[in-house]
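Illustration: IS110 family transposase.
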Amino acid sequence: MKDSTKYIGLDVSKDFIAVAIADEGRNNPRYFGQIPNNEESIRKLFKKLGEEECWLNVCYEAGPTGYGLYRFLTALGIECCVVAPSLIPTRAGDRIKTDRRDAIRLAQLYRAGELTPIYIPTEEDEALRDLVRAREVTKEDQLRARHHLAKFLLRHEVKAPSHLKKKWTKIYHKWLNTVKFDNSALEIVFQEYLHTLDEIEQHLERLERAIHTEAMRSEHAPVIEALQTLRGVKEITAVTLVVEVGTFKRFASARDFMGYTGLIPSEYSSGGSRYQGKITKTGNSHVRRVLVESAWSYRHKPNISGDIKKRQQGQDATVQRIAWKAQTRLHSKYARMAAKGKPHGKVIAAVARELAGFIWAIATSAEQRTSSSNKVA
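Result:
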């Protein structure tokens, strides 16, 4: 019978893993050593540690090495947890950081229950998430390429015709193709900027087609479609929310999900005084970004027509009711706060925070229906 537990902290890097062990009780954690970061060495380590009659609980920080180690240890039957680096308690005045100290500290805090585990996506979800994040990177490249081109035209006093009020539309692109420079060097620079932008936009189109295909064949397709009943939440936004969150059931309430987005205000209260500051910006930054982008849609009056009406066709009545309630409530909140003269940033953050609650309600409802239908099948 296994009658004790060993808490093992791993400081994982690309080539090596520092290992520390904290036994049950109050004994100081001990440094075990460093091993190469490969499957054979890891298997030998835990075979040796598992020879003793004790349970092994392993933890390491989330980082660029991904979840391969977690999946490998889980396959070996070893309990493993990946912890959030930003939520690891730190000591004031501690200015020494080494792999050895980090591993010992992880083992000590894991034994004390002071570490916060993160959600581990499935391999399929992680692949779709990488696809969505690849699109985010491409959008950043597109913005950078547009800035380069626009500033080049501005420097050389090339202005679009007065009827082209919006940039980067199809008509604007047609006008760009007609622009010519007398100087050959300037013409080369302009054509290269234009060609780079065209390549990035073609890349973006390929990624968006791939996201649509993979999303519709994934197990999350019903949730993705249900989220699109909300104003300002189209396919890319819905897919981003789903792949970053995984399952919305891991949040017990809408309030918990709001906290995860980092859109709740920070607070300092002492005695009779209470002060609320800027939003915490904890949790998932990708989720927070798409929520803020979607929140701008609620400055318009509630309306169901056009694209929103198409996206709501065939959806559950409960989901449609929540989506309409979101429109009316969030527009009212935006108008009320704007009328008080609140800064636009604060107004949008407040709307995005409440939008997160409606997203949680729709997603959990869709997940519940999907699980129920799977049980019946």
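Reading the tokens back as a structure: The radius of gyration is 26 Å.
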